[in-house]
Specification:
Blueprint (H helix, E strand, L loop, with lengths): L2 H13 L19 H23 L5 H6 L6 E3 L5 E5 L4 H6 L6 H12 L8 E4 L13 H18 L3 E5 L1 H8 L5 H4 L4 E5 L4 E8 L2 H6 L4 H18 L1
Parallel strand pairs: 2-3, 2-4, 4-6
Antiparallel strand pairs: 1-3, 5-6
Helix pairs in contact: 2-6
């Protein structure tokens, strides 16, 4: 299977139109219990594509980042996710592949998810900034503010129950607190969306890239993950 066909198949799976992938004929007279979910997925992918198109063609400051980047990086994972994981910005591998968290930090994130019985394809993964900053530098406050509306639109589209913030940039963007990450982590906060008319439980924790450099903080990160796991179990 060539790369183009593989991407098309992954797109179809993400949208939820599973009957296109079936080997046997579809009985269209059967009641399709997944129809409403598939319809929602199609609506969501259309919204997300619109967001991607706006970022791609924006003419303001973020276009400066576009000049040094290879690919736009918006999201990966499920359109029906209960949890959104928000990172900082794409790195080298992410910029090359056009997907968030696919490098060493992404491999660690996958292990972190597995540790609390989650799969990558069950959650929604994105970043605050969607173009790779030159030399992987930290996004500026101006860049964070420029991209923040697109992150908020993604949250409104997915409508999660929980947001898990990975690192200082994501925490600054969503919680808008002057406190340090060390003081904000380990407790639940609330993100309020005016469009959703609901408050979303939010937790701030360390970025996987930071954990690779400073493994002594893995214990604290594990405690944060367990808080999320407990919330999810209570929903069962």
């Amino acid at each position: 299977m060539n790369q183009s066909n593989k991407k098309n198949k992954e797109f179809i799976k993400n949208v939820g139109v599973n009957y296109f992938l079936q080997e046997s004929p579809k009985n269209w007279f059967e009641k399709n219990t997944n129809f409403e979910q598939e319809e929602t997925n199609l609506a969501n992918i259309n919204k997300l594509n619109k967001i991607k198109n706006i970022i791609e063609n924006i003419r303001k400051y973020p276009s400066e980042l576009k000049k040094s980047a290879n690919n736009l990086v918006v999201f990966d994972g499920s359109l029906n996710a209960k949890v959104i994981f928000v990172g900082e910005a794409p790195g080298k591998e992410e910029d090359e592949q056009g997907l968030p968290f696919v490098g060493r930090a992404g491999q660690l994130l996958n292990k972190m998810l597995k540790a609390i019985n989650l799969k990558r394809e069950e959650v929604y993964i994105t970043n605050v900034v969607n173009w790779r900053p030159p030399n992987n530098r930290t996004p500026t406050d101006r860049e964070i503010l420029e991209f923040l509306p697109f992150l908020q639109q993604q949250i409104d589209t997915i409508n999660p129950n929980y947001i898990f913030l990975l690192g200082n940039v994501a925490t600054k963007a969503i919680l808008s607190s002057p406190l340090s990450l060390a003081k904000l982590r380990g407790k639940w906060h609330e993100y309020e969306s005016l469009k959703l008319n609901k408050k979303i439980y939010t937790i701030a924790s360390y970025h996987p890239a930071f954990l690779l450099r400073s493994p002594q903080h893995k214990k604290a990160s594990w405690e944060d993950l367990q808080m999320l796991q407990k919330k999810l179990k209570n929903e069962e």
